[in-house]
Amino acid sequence: MSVSGPFRAGDRVQLTDSKGRHYTLTLADGGEYHTHRGALAHDDLIGRPEGSVVTSSGGSTYLALRPLLPDYVLSMPRGAQVIYPKDAAQIVMWGDIFPGARVLEAGAGSGALTCSLLRAVGPAGHVHSYEIRDDHAEHAERNVVKFFGEKPANWSLTVADLASHEGEVDRVVLDMLAPWDQLPNVAAHLVPGGVLTVYVATVTQLSRVTESLREQQCWTEPESWETLMRPWHVVGLAVRPDHRMVAHTAFLLTARRLADGTVSPRVSRRPSKGKG
């Protein structure tokens, strides 16, 4: 599977019609893709440059491009709910996932975030993914292998609790129902200065994991936020927000591991109104 240059057999191609609808296929010599507006011969695409326009037997035109990672994530088969691209981008940036990093991920879910982590660490890094559910692990492995064309050599997927992990890691990403239960295990494996990123869906979870980090006293003051993504409609002088947006999907939280025996300086906070 090639990632650039002319289309080849085995490549995934995303076709976009005149209404902006997407259709994804895998090219094969002699193959055909049938739509309600006629068939498209795969051979008409193989050998052509990315960004070409092809015409079906019914006369409809389609723009042909390789799908981007966000396209793949939003269309992948799901076992668990995927981490949306807007949140995955925040995790890679604020979690400081760098080339060569050793990353511990728990749980793997459908493998959406795993693809972003593997790209970020590169061949010199390694992603250790843990998933307690067999069915979710199967979905994750299929989706990751399908995206990369093979199982990446720098990825290990273990069906177990992350407590079974051995060895130091540079970064940790938690996406689970009760991340506070795993904080002692995370602290045991994360290097001093390493970044912990936590993905949670509810305010209750956010509050509990934040207070648990403070109680453990081996972390910097946790920072939390959510990301809202609002597309804009731009046609001539008609410039306005789109009618739909991807609003709340989750809360993200980051904290950094302190050196052993160190206690973070106490953060002064304003007293709540009404308290004298």
Write structural notes for this entry.
The chain has helices spanning 69-75, 85-94, 112-121, 134-148, 183-189, 203-216; strands at 12-16, 22-26, 32-35, 38-41, 52-55, 61-65, 102-106, 126-130, 155-158, 169-175, 190-200, 223-225, 232-235, 238-241, 251-256. α2 packs parallel to α3 (112-121). β3 and β4 (38-41) form a beta hairpin. It has 276 residues and is α/β, with parallel strands linked by helices. The protein has 2 domains: 12-67, Vcp-like ATPase, Chain A, domain 2 (Roll); 71-256, Vaccinia Virus protein VP39 (Rossmann fold, 3-Layer(aba) Sandwich). A 7-stranded mixed β-sheet has the order 9-8-7-10-11-15-12. Strands 2-1-6-5 form a 4-stranded antiparallel β-sheet, with no helix packed on it. The longest helix is centred in the middle third of the chain and has 15 residues, at 134-148. It has 6 helices and 15 strands.
Number of strands: 15
The CATH homology group name of the largest domain = Vaccinia Virus protein VP39
Determine the strand fraction and express it as a percent band. 25-35%
Mean pLDDT: 94
Distance between the ends: 66 Å
Helix share, percent: 10-25%
> Helical element count?
6
Q: What is the top-level CATH class of the largest domain?
A: Alpha Beta
The CATH architecture of the largest domain comes to: 3-Layer(aba) Sandwich
GO biological process, one term: tRNA methylation
Function: Catalyzes the S-adenosyl-L-methionine-dependent formation of N(1)-methyladenine at position 58 (m1A58) in tRNA.
Pfam families: GCD14 (PF08704), TrmI-like_N (PF14801)
GO cellular component, one term: tRNA (m1A) methyltransferase complex
